[in-house]
Specification:
By secondary structure, this protein is an alpha+beta fold. Helix content is 31%, strand content 22%.
């Protein structure tokens, strides 16, 4: 069905809250999908209301190009927080999961699990955020699904997204590729997202609001690869934070990740929150931070490329790769000692993404 025909057929969805009928497959569900989702996302692929998206990926015709595919689910509490909401989180998180594999993100799916009683205006706000984030990242939301569950079945709204992208020839970042002498970089302040969620929950009366770093990183990744085609390791530091990513690199490569505490970019507000609550900013979640490992001869070019992009203007070199002790992360503290940074045990903050 052509989008213009669908627009003619679509009526205004007038319900104020979601009911079980909106997930039952009948007229009420069709009105919800037509107006809130198809209308909100304004996607030509969605407008046909088929059970699948039919995509043309001409970039795969290039010899050596590979398809990248990822999926993730989002259950953040609260739904809205300083710097974003569950919708921006869902789009940017999936875009970033593709980008850190070297892929150019192209298409996303969107699955909504909605609690009975959710205000329709809340749903519209989330959809609007998703569309804005997708437009900013240059991706299209092309297919989706809607389920409504009884009160208590979920907490307001859960979102699942899957993403498809294309990895150009020659790109092969992998956790196992770290080598002695490689340089470790990050594109800015750590811990902002985790701190923003704590702030949004009202657990602390902070003088200054901390905003999430939620953002799409595919443009930054393109700038990085243009300056340094041989990126050894690349990952976004989400749940478990910087410490978890570095431990994943260390374990996969059998190398030692050595970082300098004085080099870590941490906002004073985040540092202060961590001191009050007994949290470690190394483990706080981020939603817009890349951990990059590059050969030493490429470090200056990589740092300049990161800093040249808005998403990397606070980028810093934070350490280097060694060969001993194998499989460990070592932090050189501000007091002159060393400490081992282990994998996170348990969960510092639940429901943060």
């Amino acid at each position: 069905m052509k989008p213009e025909r669908l627009r003619t057929r679509r009526g205004r969805f007038t319900a104020e809250t979601i009911t079980l009928a909106h997930g039952a497959g009948g007229k009420a569900m069709r009105e919800l999908i037509d107006d809130v989702f198809v209308g909100g996302f304004a996607s030509a692929e969605l407008a046909g209301l088929e059970d699948q998206a039919r995509l043309e990926i001409g970039a795969l015709s290039e010899p050596g190009a590979r398809l990248a595919f990822t999926t993730d689910s989002y259950v953040v509490d609260p739904l809205f927080f300083p710097g974003g909401d569950i919708g921006t989180l869902a789009v940017n998180g999936t875009v970033n999961d593709l980008a850190v594999g070297g892929a150019r993100p192209l298409y996303l799916s969107c699955g909504m699990i909605i609690e009975e009683g959710l205000p329709v205006e809340t749903l519209r706000q989330v959809v609007a955020s998703m569309r804005a984030a997708a437009d900013a990242a240059g991706v299209a939301i092309v297919t989706g699904d809607t389920k409504v569950v009884p009160r208590g079945g979920v907490d307001k709204l859960f979102i699942n997204t899957a993403g498809v992208g294309v990895i150009p020839p020659g790109r092969d970042p992998a956790a196992a590729r770290a080598r002695p002498g490689d340089v470790i970089l990050i594109n800015g302040f750590i811990g902002d997202h985790g701190a923003a969620i704590v702030d949004a929950r009202g657990d602390l009366a902070l003088e200054n609001t901390i905003e999430s770093d939620c953002q799409a990183l595919n443009g930054l990744v393109e700038a990085l690869f243009a300056a340094c085609p041989d990126v050894h390791c690349l990952r976004d530091a989400t749940r478990g934070g910087l410490a978890t990513v570095l431990n994943e690199f260390a374990t996969a490569s059998g190398m030692a990740m050595r970082i300098e505490e004085r080099a870590l970019p941490i906002r004073e507000a985040v540092r202060g929150m961590c001191e009050i609550l007994g949290l470690d900013p190394l483990y706080l979640a981020n939603e817009g931070k890349l951990v990059v490992v590059v050969p030493p001869e490429a470090a200056d070019a990589a740092l300049s490329a990161l800093r040249s992009h808005p998403a990397g203007r606070d980028a810093a070199v934070i350490g280097e790769v060694g060969d001993s002790p194998a499989g460990t992360v070592i932090l050189a503290t501000a007091f002159g000692g060393d400490r081992v940074v282990d994998m996170l045990v348990g969960e510092q903050l639940p429901r943060i993404c």
